[in-house]
Write a structure and sequence with these properties.
InterPro entries: Nitroreductase (IPR029479), Nitroreductase-like (IPR000415), Nitroreductase/BluB (IPR050627). By secondary structure, the protein is an alpha+beta fold. It has 8 helices and 5 strands, in the order αβαβαααβαβαβα.
């Protein structure tokens, strides 16, 4: 598979089959992803992959403990402005429309939101941490690690869903994996095989046209 094919196929999958992912494949993906760019070769990522009984235990514990009083960080800026606010609103509406949940069905929307806490049925949960003292350049490195991981997973016929949702449960997850106090959770990644029959996996998140965000000079 060419990289361009992986980029086009990759999507945030929100319904997985329960089929297990072999340990050697998971290890290969995590290790090879560390070839991602890293300023000064700092390599600020710390990764925990869970499956089977440990993952089930963590999910149960997170549901039992509930969300932290405050998230580890703000996923979006307060009072998100245009055009970003509209983009976020539109993808949310498209997601719920794909599974037939209208805007007025708040219980239905909450039930779908709660599926985040089950990793959408994925058999593997990858939780990515960073040192609390790291700054924006290292957070950028973390993003490049995650993108590399997701594209490599696509190449291997797997699918992913990066989930900042888990920042709301950082205390539980950090304690569960015995993370040092100076290390914080950034996100989880659901990893597995997509359920091709699930309507929610037909969602195609559009991208703004190049003219809205790109300029070329001197060409």
């Amino acid at each position: 598979m060419h990289v361009s094919e992986a980029v086009r196929r990759r999507m945030s999958v929100r319904a997985f089959r329960p089929d297990p992912v072999p340990a050697d494949i998971v290890r290969e993906l995590l290790e090879l992803s560390a070839r991602a760019p890293s300023g000064g070769n700092v390599q600020p990522w710390h990764v925990h992959a869970l499956t089977g009984a440990p993952l089930a235990e963590l999910i149960d514990l997170a549901n039992e403990n509930g969300a932290d009083p405050e998230p580890a960080y703000d996923v979006y800026p307060h009072n998100l402005w245009e055009p970003y606010r509209t983009r976020r609103f539109q993808i949310g509406e498209a997601l719920y429309a794909s599974i037939g949940i209208p805007r007025e069905d708040k219980p239905g929307r909450l039930r779908q939101l709660a599926r985040n806490g089950m990793l959408f049925g994925a058999p593997v949960g990858v939780f990515v941490f960073i040192d609390r003292k790291m700054g924006p350049p290292q957070w950028s490195d973390l993003g490049m690690y995650l993108q590399t991981l997701m594209l490599l997973a696509t190449e291997r016929g797997l699918d992913t869903c990066p989930q900042e949702y888990w920042a709301r449960f950082a205390n539980t997850i950090e304690r569960f994996v015995n993370a040092p106090e100076d290390r914080m959770l950034f996100c989880g990644v659901a990893l597995g095989y997509r359920d091709e029959a699930a309507p929610i996996n037909t969602l195609d998140a559009p991208r703004a046209p190049f003219a809205e965000w790109g300029q070329m000079h001197g060409f």
